[in-house]
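Duplicate of earlier report; Arylsulfotransferase family protein input re-posted below.
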Amino acid sequence: MRVTVTANKPGTARGDIFVGPFSADRMIGRTGALINDNSGDPVWFRPLPSVNLQNADFRVQTSYDRRGRGQPVLTWWQGSLALPPAYTNLPAGAPEPGGCYYVYDTHYRLLRTVFAHHGYYPDEHEFTLTRRGTALFIASRPVPMDLTPYGGPRDGSIENSEIQEVDLATGRLVFSWNALDHLDPADSEEPVSSASSSDGVWDAFHINSVDEGPDGRLLISARNMWAIYDVAKRSGRIRYRIGGKKSDFTFGPNADFYWQHDARYRPGDRISMFDDGCCDLPDGAPEQESHGLILRLDFRSRRATVDRTYYHRPPLESPTQGNTQALSNGDEFIGWGQSPYYSEYAGAGNTRGNGSRNLLYDAKQPGSDISYRAFRNEWVGSPYYPPSAAARASGGDHVVYASWNGSTQTRAWRVLAGSGPHSLSVVVGHARRAGFETAVTTHAPGPYFQVKALNARGKVIGTSRVVRLSGPPPTSGTTGSRHR
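Output:
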């Protein structure tokens, strides 16, 4: 999948961009886990074998051992979702059985595979590592239930969610919080009649994020309740509700939200979220645009007011997904969910109708390709596997292609050639890295070639296998094929 960068101004935060491209319609490219740089070029791509599989919540985290020692890792969910028109027995967007979470090291080697407990399915919405050497995530499954009190079928089910925490070293469950034990399905904004399209399973809650505060509290977002819950982790008790039919807070102008995602604690009695704000709004509610939203909570008056907002130009309506990420330099990074964009804004943000203000970076994925969330993270990748090389005749010259999927330290390439596979002592080319794949033209006859990756100090950090010149050249007018 190749993106189109529509804005790239000075002042963006450091780091690359992490997405899990997929499409519920016609995928352009392949699903998988993708790191892009600011120019839109891929840094690392791990493609999946089927468009029915996808990755979500792909990002950099720190994995801690029991001694408190941390190391940077890549984490993501992998599995399949119930998506129209193919699904028949689960609500749209619910995880199907068979999913899991992956933890990879800086060399792109698998460290951990994490599964859910209690017969629940690992959910794409959240997977967070803690300083305790545990993983906190959401798990979901249909629970049989009489839905007649809510206007549904007697032999129906609720798509229930559990917040689970497991020890990474042992896989042992150390904490769980069950939505049905604490939330009333009658407060749902999702009509029970929607269960008729998913074999009687009602998605009353749709828990889609959990964030752990510094004092042992949890901030839990329930999309289909239009509500965010502050939960005392030790007791499981809901301390207060923001939004929904039983909100403990009133709202100032433009502070209410609908179908929200990615609720996070922020310093200074604030919370952030991605307000999808789209589709099936209450009677009398003004037409909404999706946007990043930071609320300030006044606990004395129990009132929520707008602190910052982040709108897009052109205006976007994202019925599902999305996130608002705080960056280390004070900027905010917005993944637009079901809309194909991701953007970075200076921290002051903007207001509705002024979506270009403070916009520093913006990129658009092709066609109907989207990503559940999008992140900007700093990452140093040193692949355990060698660089790739290919060589092809092109007119009277030869072109050597060099790439190294996932290497963030390669700054230049050195090309060697020789008459035999064991006699590559002559350097015949040198070029600065130019995107994911660099083409180096040489007059050397070869026919054997090899490339070496150089870091910023000119040190060799990787050597490809020896490749033989291929030909004849293509007839389509290109200078060579792209080998990965």
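Residues 473-484 have pLDDT under 50 and may be disordered.

Merging into the original ticket.
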